[in-house]
Amino acid sequence: SQQGEEDPQALSIQEGENATMNCSYKTSINNLQWYRQNSGRGLVHLILIRSNEREKHSGRLRVTLDTSKKSSSLLITASRAADTASYFCATGDSNYQLIWGAGTKLIIKP
Amino acid sequence: NAGVMQNPRHLVRRRGQEARLRCSPMKGHSHVYWYRQLPEEGLKFMVYLQKENIIDESGMPKERFSAEFPKEGPSILRIQQVVRGDSAAYFCASSPDKKGYDSPLHFGNGTRLTVT
User: Fold this and answer.
1) Is the model's pLDDT at B87 over the cut of 80?
2) By the CB < 8 Å criterion, does A92 face chain B?
């Protein structure tokens, strides 16, 4: 079953603005990962944050994790047209499977 | 270092035919995952394989679907007697780590199966 739920389902912002996407999950996790999917392509890994970490940065990306609320957020700063894509969170527990959310569709308007 | 290669990119089959989807993992990766994705939806896990072993096929329908990852050659996802409901994008991902949840997955660009 799908555990991660991204919010919002769709987000449209102007180029240069910041974009924030959220992910909620239900069970305990070892880590949470964010992926990007461009239309018609496979998924690309962005960031992995472990359950004992609270925040992680990679370039213009900032991910936070709140295990008490079972939620994570992905912030993209200074958005660009090339950031237009769907963004998925996936949670890993003690099993080997990742559980995926349905994604947030991000549109950056020039 | 070549990424995960899937072929074909697009596959059209008539109802009742067989579909064979191939996936060559990244070099050095021995763990392969197959996922299915419907339009505007997330990924649904199908099967997890290591070389010559099916580790978890709990996401794969018991009938008509099978998967293998032989010692030599690509992983194959096989769908027999396809029906319209099998139309979807099928993604393969690989990882080097035994604990696949703990390392990033590398995805291919998928095979888009259309059943007419």
Assistant:
1) yes
2) yes
